[in-house]
Model the fold of this input.
Amino acid sequence: MKEEYKSVSCGFYDELGALAVSHKSCEIIFWNENGAKTITRDSIKNLYSKEGVEYLETGNGAKIRLDRLSQVDGKTPNNQC
Done:
């Protein structure tokens, strides 16, 4: 069964975009596909949408759904635009 995507706030998306443009390394905390909290340090290479789901791609090539993010560079997502 496909997990329903829940959009992140416009402000948080803009913060992610600014980090992608700056190529700054940052702490990314998210829940992986198994539901485990994961912490990594990397840059954001790209933000994109595929089949109605938004993702970020890290500098090392990891792809993370935006609705699985817990915190990026000390900022937390908000699910309202």
About this structure: The first helix runs from residue 10 to 22.
